[in-house]
Design goal:
The complex is a heterodimer of chains A (343) and B (298). Chain A has 15 helices and 4 strands. A two-stranded antiparallel ribbon of chain A has the order 1-4. In chain A, helix 4 crosses helix 5. With 298 residues, chain B is mostly helical. Chain B has one domain. Chain B has a two-stranded antiparallel ribbon. In chain B, helix 2 crosses helix 8, helix 5 runs antiparallel to helix 8 and helix 10 crosses helix 11. The longest helix of chain B has 30 residues. Chain B is globular. Classes of the chains: A mainly alpha (343), B mainly alpha (298). Chains A and B meet through helix 5, helix 6, helix 12 and helix 14 of A and helix 3, helix 4, helix 9 and helix 11 of B.
């Protein structure tokens, strides 16, 4: 617990012949490029408008999902295949929030809080398990949420409900607002995970992921690390669910609780590079490209996605970014430290 | 009398769940792998049964001598090609690989067989029943339950009383020491995976004969099997049967009151057990810490 804090306070540079640094010229340049890219993305509705917004909304939604799942599986070792529980919950929560007259765009934040609150008692159950058993327990949670939704006539049962509160906006403005909301959630997810894992939390979480017993014996509060990761990812998934409800304007249980979301998350993180900040970004772009390319056939698309994920785990377990950073020593968004000889 | 009937039907249904679950339990107990594609492989067994029984024009039971060895070969092959390799990449890799495999199987089945629900030809057994007082018992359900008991007994006997079983238990206890004393672990694991997938395929045949199945039935099958394992106590074979029976009885009894809540009740029973007794309802002497040592609990 304390080790992380000690390192970030800069206690290490006293090692005489070495310099220990986190940032490099490339990393600073990359951060500047990211800021520039965000600025460009923000003004897109004014410059290009509709034709660019639709694909970017899909891509940014993928990006948020990948980044959040990476926090769970990549950094904290919690392979959840039930994040669709919170995506679905978020979609329904957005409907309820909008139904009560709250602005749906402002409601996204509220929905994230609701998802976090719901995930607290759930985490007390599923975090009792680990590894594959945790994975299946999260599937059970998603199944329970879906059944509860289909059994509730107030949210439309099996047929679902359409999201109110958007009629007041014109088509162009609504599209742009949804785009900006998606952009905000995607940036918050990537930047949030980045900030979180750069702190002591990141070191602790990776220790928990690689060996919980050893981590506990060196003073890491394993339960708390898992809880923070699970609740944060649930809040993020809730926000993504709210976005999906806004994008589709209709919430249907079989589609918002679809296990496909978990398949996508798995694919993006594994292919891009698990446990890195850059990896999920690459994974999201690849999944987006693959979807555009194979959109004609849903089943084959998923066969390829699943097959590539299996291949990546067995042959290149660190993904594209893991390979590139090892081969070329790249670290664009560093989360560790580099030790260099002074001469 | 309605309730007695519901409990009896529930016990018989529980046998089905136990039959699917025992392979999952075995694979975890020996190889420490939670096979997330287990349910999908059971569904594959049902599809294979469909293909064979249609091609040969016989009830699906007649095809079992072909089907079970085929499933054994598939299981052993998967262990050698995928699971064994995944196990060398740490604790996360098997979870990721088996989930990826599950996605592939479901969608390949959809490409090959469309998503229409199918049923299997169970011959005259499928419709036969007998009366027990005023209760009607289906021979098919009873056969399924007795098959589950027989499979579990054989596994238990083989593990407890044969030299092979001794080697399996030694490997499950301590892989490195087992290697050190000359046990050839890879063929042993392949055989265990083969047996696990054969029992899954057998369970798939019963699922397909009793009800219908489609390419995406595997995930729910996996969830039920997993719940039976946890409720019965991770690592205990007879506990798995008890867990399956607890699931079956809950499902049928709640279904008697309101059909819509039957599956929800099963999931809630599982979550309740996880809250109150994460070591399982039917375990004695095995403490949570011991189970934790096996890596299933966090």
């Amino acid at each position: 617990m304390r080790r992380g804090a000690a390192i970030s306070r800069g206690a290490v540079p006293s090692l005489a012949p070495f310099t220990v640094s986190r940032w490099s010229v490339t990393a600073s340049l990359c951060t500047a490029t990211c800021v520039l890219a965000v600025a460009v993305l923000v003004v897109i509705p004014y410059v290009i408008g509709g034709p660019a917004e639709q694909p970017l909304i899909t891509l940014l939604t993928f990006l948020a999902m990948a980044s959040l799942w990476n926090l769970l599986a990549g950094f904290s070792g919690l392979t959840s295949f039930g994040q669709q529980a919170y995506i679905g919950l978020g979609a329904y929560a957005l409907y309820l929030v909008a139904e009560h007259g709250i602005n749906p765009f402002a409601g996204i934040l509220l929905v994230a809080v609701i998802a976090a609150v719901v995930s607290l008692p759930v985490s007390a159950l599923v975090l009792r398990l680990s590894g594959g058993y945790f994975a299946v327990a999260t599937l059970v949670v998603a199944a329970v949420f879906q059944i509860i939704a289909t059994l509730s006539p107030s949210v439309g049962g099996t047929t679902g409900v359409s999201v109110p509160g958007l009629a007041g906006y014109g088509d162009v403005l609504r599209e742009a607002l949804i785009y900006w909301a998606t952009l905000a959630v995607a940036i918050a997810s990537v930047a949030g995970v980045y900030v979180l894992v750069r702190r002591g939390f990141g070191i602790d979480a990776r220790a928990v992921s690689s060996d919980p017993v050893a981590a506990a014996s060196s003073g890491v509060r394993v339960g708390r690390i898992r809880l923070v990761a699970y609740v944060t990812a649930a809040a993020g998934a809730g926000a993504v669910g709210a976005l999906i409800a806004l994008q589709t304007l209709y919430v249907e249980p079989s589609s918002v609780f679809s296990i496909q979301y978990s398949v996508y998350m798995l694919f993006m993180v594994l292919i891009g590079g698990i446990g890195t900040i850059e990896g999920p970004v690459i994974g999201a772009i690849l999944l987006f490209a693959l979807q555009e390319w194979l959109s004609a056939d849903g089943a084959w698309y998923l066969v390829i996605v699943g097959g590539l994920a299996v291949t990546a785990t067995l042959i290149a377990s660190r993904g594209i970014w893991g390979f590139a950073s090892e081969r070329f020593g790249w670290s664009l968004l560093p989360i560790g430290y580099q030790v260099r000889s002074r001469d | 009398m309605n309730w007695v009937n519901a409990v009896i039907q529930g016990v018989l249904l529980g046998g089905q769940y136990a039959l699917i679950a025992c392979g999952l339990s075995l694979a975890f107990g020996v190889m420490r792998i939670v096979n997330l594609a287990h349910g999908d492989l059971a569904v594959c067994g049902a599809y294979l049964g469909l293909v064979l029984s249609t091609a040969l024009g016989v009830p699906v039971w007649v095809t079992l001598p072909l089907l079970l060895p085929a499933a054994f070969v598939v299981g052993a092959g998967l262990q050698v090609l995928l699971f064994g390799r995944a196990l060398q990449h740490g604790v996360l890799a098997p979870v990721l690989v088996t989930f990826g495999l599950s996605v592939m199987i479901e969608n390949l089945l959809q490409v090959a067989a469309t998503s229409d629900p199918r049923g299997l030809n169970g011959g005259s057994l499928a419709l036969a029943s007998f009366h027990l007082g005023s209760i009607v018992v289906s021979w098919l359900f009873l056969t399924g339950f007795l098959t589950a008991c027989a499979v579990l007994s054989c596994l238990q006997l083989a593990l407890s009383h044969t030299p092979w079983g001794r080697r399996v238990r030694a490997t499950a206890d301590d892989l490195d020491t087992a290697r050190l004393v000359g046990i050839r672990v890879r063929p042993l694991f392949a055989a265990v995976a083969g047996i696990a997938i054969s029992t899954a395929a057998l369970a798939g045949v019963f699922i397909g004969t009793i009800g219908t199945f489609d390419p995406f039935a595997g995930t729910n099958t996996l969830i039920f099997a997993f719940e039976a394992v946890v409720i019965g106590g991770i690592g205990s074979l007879w506990g798995t049967l008890a867990g399956g029976v607890a699931l079956g009885v809950t499902q049928v009894v709640v279904g008697e009151i309101n059909e819509a809540y039957a599956v929800l009740a099963v999931h809630l029973l599982f979550l309740a057990v996880l809250t109150v007794r994460p070591g399982g309802l039917f375990t004695r002497g095995q403490t949570l810490r011991e189970i934790r040592g096996q890596g299933a609990l966090g």
